[in-house]
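Hello forum,

I keep getting stuck at the same step: I have a sequence, I want structure tokens, and every attempt I make locally crashes halfway through. Rather than fight my setup again tonight, could one of you with a working pipeline run this one for me? It's a single chain of 107 residues.
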Amino acid sequence: MFCPSCGKPLDPNARFCSACGARMTPVPPVAASRSSQLVRPRYPRLIAGVCAGFSEHYGWDISVVRVVTVVLAILTSGIGFVAYLAAWVLIPEAAYTLPQTTGSSTI
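Reply #2:
Ran it on my machine without issues. Output:
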């Protein structure tokens, strides 16, 4: 975990940054942050976010999902590629969210 204000590495249980004193917002556990709906996230997508969506929804490693997708697209004579395109169209895009701030505002 890193401080969003100064970028210094932090203990995951830290409430304040030891370098700059910024207050840390609690991060929900991965299991609790999973949504019940499969969506294509805006980050960390490479092409359309289909692989990132499956990896976040099911808790899989994103690199493994991407490798399996490429292998299936090549070995199935294009059927895997068509399935990826269909998933791109059918799976909704995730809502755009703004990054969280630490509470200090500069005007």
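DSSP finds four helices and no strands in the chain. If your local run keeps crashing, start a new thread with the error log.
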